[in-house]
Amino acid sequence: MSNNEGSELQVITSVPSQCFLGEGPLWHAGRKSFFWVDIEKGNLFEHHLATEVTRTRHFPHRLAVVLEGQEGKLILGLDRKLARFDLETEELEWLCGVEEALDLHRFNDGKVDAKGRIWIGTLSTKFTDGAGSLYRIGKDLKPEVQLSDLTISNGMAWTEDLKTFYFIDTPTRQVREFAFESESGGIHLRKVAVEVPSELGFPDGMCIDQEGMLWVSHYGGSGVYRWNPKTGELLDQIDLPVPHVTSCCFGGENLDTLLITTAQENLSREQLEKYPQSGDVFLAKVSVPGYRSNLAD
């Protein structure tokens, strides 16, 4: 499925989920399942890889983020609050919140660093320029702003040596590189690592492979693109039969399966008829594996 000659990247299957805004993919090794969310519908999907059985749970909130917590529980980003969710009892325990007076705001993308701290961004549902922020939330559950003046706080990734943090504010069409101080969680801007040309859409969710290359989902770009953050070079891509590709993560026993989320939003009726798999998720085999996600404290 790649345009690059000699590439072996290919979509191996799709999972019909028809999300309005699919996002937040997570591999849960303990359950051998992929999770993802439909933000606007408040749906949490769990797809067991071996049996291909998909289960849906619903929450009366915008559900933007699913992370793995301790003891097999999940951490969910619901509207502007974090909650711990027990998959067995379905009990929801509220943890903390941000921007409580800003009713138009919600969480967007979130990840966990190697120290178990949650990094999670916000945006205005009106997509107001500069309205969003990126927060770091540690064990004390006190959110601390790390970046402000963001519009669509999005993809995040860390290098294996924990010295570099990559971050996307989608409308900038840039992947920015920050120096990362693992002990304190401090970040300092180094440079723009990747500039996405307009014909390839907008960078959205992101993950990193074991060669340090970034896999970036391109909203409006019909694919996932593999970028070299050291040179800014485009290395490869997975083409998908949908325009709006939103996020991706590594999973499977060998961490060489890429689960890719997509969206139906901002598509006309005619476009949805032309791209009927919009909102589904796709699974692709890749030659370079990624990493397991970290557990939130």
Give a quick precis of the structure.
This is SMP-30/gluconolactonase/LRE family protein. This protein is an all-beta fold and 297 residues long.
Question: What features would you describe in this structure?
Answer:
The model is unreliable at 1-7 (pLDDT under 50). The chain has a single domain (11-285), classed as TolB, C-terminal domain (Neuraminidase, 6 Propeller), CATH 2.120.10. The strands form six sheets. A four-stranded antiparallel beta sheet has the order 1-24-23-22, with no helix packed on it. Strands 2-3-4-5 form a four-stranded antiparallel beta sheet, with no helix packed on it. Strands 6-7-8-9 form a four-stranded antiparallel beta sheet, with no helix packed on it. The chain is an all-beta fold. The chain has one helix at 269-274; strands at 10-15, 22-28, 33-38, 43-48, 53-58, 63-68, 74-78, 81-85, 92-97, 105-112, 118-124, 132-137, 144-150, 153-158, 164-169, 174-181, 186-195, 202-208, 214-219, 223-228, 233-239, 245-251, 257-262, 281-285.
Question: How do the strands and helices of this protein lay out in sequence?
Answer:
Layout: E1 10-15, E2 22-28, E3 33-38, E4 43-48, E5 53-58, E6 63-68, E7 74-78, E8 81-85, E9 92-97, E10 105-112, E11 118-124, E12 132-137, E13 144-150, E14 153-158, E15 164-169, E16 174-181, E17 186-195, E18 202-208, E19 214-219, E20 223-228, E21 233-239, E22 245-251, E23 257-262, H1 269-274, E24 281-285
Antiparallel strand pairs: 1-24, 2-3, 3-4, 4-5, 6-7, 7-8, 8-9, 10-11, 11-12, 12-13, 14-15, 15-16, 16-17, 18-19, 19-20, 20-21, 22-23, 23-24
